[in-house]
Structure formats: C-alpha cells, structure tokens
Specification:
single chain, 330 residues, mainly alpha, Rossmann fold, Tyrosyl-Transfer RNA Synthetase, 2 domains, 5 strands, globular, binds adenosine monophosphate, binds tryptophan
Length: 330
C-alpha cells in the first residue's frame, strides 16, 4: 500500500474551507492508502504565538480531526516525534540558502510580520520552515502528499532535497514524494466572496465547522450574493459559492434543481440560502455530536493519541537510525 502523509497547523478551529478543501479528502484517502496525518505544532512556533494557546490549539485540532473521521491510529502530534527536528537539521545541511530565500510563503509571512509588528523579527525557524516540512514528508517515506496548490513550491523543494541527499550520500534512500492535488473546492468568504474563506480575515469571513446551527444559518442568510460587479448574464461569485457548498456537501438534488431555476431566471436567493443552510447543518450535526463525545472522554482520547504518536514515532526513529548512519554520525 502506498504511503500518504499530510499535516495541518494547529490554528484553532477548523472552518468549512479546511474541511471541504483538505480534511474531507484526508478522511477518504484512508480507505485506499496507508495514511499518516500530523498536527504540526513545531511549525506553529515560526510566527509569534502564546505557549499555553499553542498547546490548547494542538489538542483542539486533534479532537476536531478525530470528529471529522480521521482514525486515531493515523494521527500524531509532531511535537511528540522530535526526530522531525533532527532530520530537519540534517536536511538543512543539504539545502541552500538561495533556494530557501526564494520560497514565496517565507516572503509573504515575513512581510506580514513586519506590517503587523515593527518590533517583530523574522526567525531562523520561519526561514527553515520548508526544511522541517520536507523532514515531515521524507521521514515517513510518503509517496503522496495531499496539499493545496499553495504548497506546490514546498513540495518541489522536498523533492529537490530528497534528490540531493540521495546523490550526496550515494544511495536512493529517500522516496520522491508526489503532491496529490485532488479536485477540492475553494470555499470563499461568505462576507466577501472575492476572497478565500480564511480565519485571518476575521470572524465573519469563515464558518466554523463546529458552529451551532443558529450561527451557521445566520452566516449563510447574510452571505453576500450580489457584489454589484458581475457582468450581465454571469453568475456572481457569492451565488457560485453557495452552489459550490451544496455540491461539496453532496446534495446534488438541491444543487441541480436550484441551478435549473437559476438558468430559467427564476432562482430566489432565499431558497438557495435555505437549502445551503439546511444541507450544511445536517452535515455538521453528527460532527458536533462526535466532538462532544470525544470531549467527554478527554483524558482517554489524549492518551490514545499519545500512544498513536509513540507508534508512529517508531517509524521516524527507524528512518533516523538509517540516516544517521548514511551521513556519518557516530
Ligand atoms: P490553512 O491553515 O489556511 O493553511 O489551511 C489548511 C488546509 O485547508 C490547507 O490544505 C488548505 O488548502 C485548506 N483550505 C484553507 N482554506 C480553504 C478554503 N477557503 N477553501 C478550500 N480549502 C481551504
Ligand atoms: N505547510 C503546510 C501548510 O501550511 C503544513 C505542513 C507542514 C505540511 N508539514 C507538512 C503539509 C507536510 C503537508 C506535508 O498548510
């Protein structure tokens, strides 16, 4: 069975963009591949953060992923597998300063830091972030890495690092990981459908995956449908986004019949919004229930994930044993 590996930063709550754009796909891949998924807390230390908040967000992300259907034995917390950092150091010594300087996410995050806080500095951690990501991938011999297009450059770098390492140490040791760009929808902000749904834009721009029904209904009800800049005869971005949500939830009956109304010029936005809210809340209800169950067994679930991290760690340790030998450490 081929290995699939992907990771997510513990950003706090998952939103429906994360779910439809990534997590839903992760859940499905478990049927076909040997999957390993990480909550990458070391990565979240690369931007200013609060220590207690990081730990809380890491567990929060773990519980939410489990509630979505990630199997506990496939899930680990990166901080419980410190071999990632050792491999990052070793790989860092086969990565050039120049190629890291060209990473667009590094530049974007650096700009963001300087804009929001004049005192802030760009850390070595932020610069080395893509090497840590390469370590996450290579340490588990991942064949496929499901990621969004924004991670393409990091994946390319991981492949280059693997290739250079293999060449330098004279052995086809590391697998060359391939990105898996599955067709996942890009979910837009309900408040500004010209932008991607994202937590960083503020509360009204994302729909929390575990939000209460009332809140979801309100957010869908007030979703922007007409931005006033759509050419005649063209569907506006906001309306498209609602149709996309219906499709992502798998409610093709409602999608198709409302689309027929739209094509006949008879679509009522209120009907589209109601169908979208009904479909979303129906999808989310079981997730909410599962999350409540998991939270009721917090200590047991936490020790289960510590245990799965320990089992996954054994694979990382095996890789490090071999790598240390290859690179000449005693
Ligand atoms: P982030 O924390 O923003 O990097 O997102 C984590 C994962 O969710 C990534 O794989 C993204 O591709 C995916 N994602 C985030 N926002 C959206 C969105 N609005 N639509 C679709 N996928 C998204
Ligand atoms: N950099 C990824 C992101 O921002 C998260 C990530 C870290 C990752 N390590 C990874 C993704 C390994 C895939 C594989 O979304």
């Amino acid at each position: 069975m081929k290995n699939v590996l992907s990771c997510i930063q513990p950003t706090g709550d998952l939103h429906i963009g994360n779910y439809f754009g990534a997590v839903q796909n992760w859940v499905r891949l478990q049927e076909t591949y040997h999957c390993t998924y990480g909550v990458v807390d070391y990565h979240s230390m690369t931007m200013p953060y609060d220590a207690a908040q990081l730990r809380e967000n890491t567990w929060k992300m773990v519980f939410q992923l489990l509630a979505c259907g990630i199997q506990p034995e496939n899930l680990f917390i990166q901080g419980l597998v410190p071999e990632h950092v050792e491999l990052c150091w070793i790989l860092g010594c086969t990565t050039s300063f120049g190629e890291l300087s060209r990473m667009t996410q590094f530049k974007d995050k650096g700009d963001l830091l300087r804009e929001t806080d004049k005192e802030a500095f760009v850390s070595l951690g932020l610069f080395a972030y893509p090497v840590l990501q390469a370590a996450d991938i290579l340490i588990y011999r991942a064949d496929y890495v499901p990621v969004g297009k924004d991670q393409e450059q990091h994946l390319e770098l991981s492949r280059n690092i693997a290739q250079r390492f293999n060449h330098q140490f004279g052995k086809e040791y590391f697998v060359h990981p391939e990105p898996l760009f599955t067709e996942t929808p890009k979910i837009l902000s309900p408040a500004d459908p010209n932008r991607k749904m994202s937590k960083s834009l503020g509360e009204k721009h994302y729909i929390n995956l575990f939000a209460e029904e009332d809140r979801i209904r309100k957010q869908i009800k007030s979703a922007v449908t007409d931005t006033g800049e759509t050419a005649a005869g063209e569907m506006s971005a906001g309306v498209k986004n609602l149709f996309e949500l219906l499709r992502a939830c798998g409610n093709m009956d409602a999608h198709d019949s409302l689309m027929a109304d739209y094509n006949a010029g008879a679509l009522k936005y209120s009907a589209l919004k109601e169908a979208t809210a009904d479909t979303l809340t129906a999808l989310i209800q079981p997730f909410r229930e599962r999350l409540a169950e998991l939270n009721a067994n917090k200590a047991a679930i936490q020790s289960q994930i510590r245990e799965s991290s320990a089992v996954i760690r054994q694979r990382a340790q095996q890789t490090l044993l071999e790598v240390r030998d290859l690179v000449g450490l005693c």
